[in-house]
Design a protein that fits this description.
The protein has 153 residues and is α+β, with helices and mostly antiparallel strands. It is built from four helices and seven strands; from the N terminus they run βααβββαβαββ. It has helices at 13-29, 40-43, 89-103, 120-128, and strands spanning 4-7, 48-55, 58-69, 72-80, 108-114, 132-133, 146-152. The protein has a seven-stranded mixed beta sheet with strand order 1-2-3-4-5-7-6, sandwiched between helices. Strand 3 and strand 4 form a beta hairpin. The radius of gyration is 14 Å and the shape is globular. The N and C termini lie far apart (30 Å).
Length: 153
């Protein structure tokens, strides 16, 4: 079964639960000052487009694209539901976000993720898609708990 990726208004209980899980996991592995995951209100901004990924009637994951400026986007809120780990959900939504960034004619796409072992699968996925380590961007500051990555589009 294929994934359906659709713009989400962040009103459904499934997406609220998935994002709560993301915040809870971040709290377990990252100190408060190093947590950059957004809650529902943080994602309800005009500069952010949020997508949910569905497999039939099951929420499989999510991801978002934040416009930093006319030529630069940021990947946000990448999360795969536990039941769908290692099934291609993250790759599908990341590919969708990259395609949308190109459609918007961004010149660059960046992201922040954790430096801890927990985030290693995410870092490997981003590298596979062409992201490379970079210096902090936008409002981020150097942080030993964060890895900053970017790719030219």
């Amino acid at each position: 079964m294929e994934f359906e990726i659709r713009i989400d208004d962040l009103s459904g209980p499934e997406i609220a639960a998935l994002l709560d899980e993301q915040l809870e996991c971040a709290a377990k592995v990252s100190p408060r000052e190093s947590r950059h995951a957004l809650d529902l209100d943080g994602l309800r901004k005009p500069e952010i487009t949020f997508w949910s990924v569905w497999r039939g009637k099951e929420l499989a994951g999510c991801g978002a694209l934040k416009e930093l400026d006319a030529g630069h986007g940021e990947v946000k809120s990448m999360r795969t539901a536990t039941a769908h780990l290692r099934k291609g959900v993250a790759a599908a939504v990341l590919q969708h976000i990259i395609a949308e960034a190109k459609r918007r004619r961004y010149r660059k796409l960046s992201l922040e993720t954790g430096s801890m072992e927990y985030f290693e699968p995410a870092r490997q996925l981003y590298q596979k898609f062409g992201f490379r380590k970079c210096v902090p961007f936008a409002d981020y500051r150097e942080d030993r708990n964060s890895v900053f990555m970017t790719m030219a589009l």
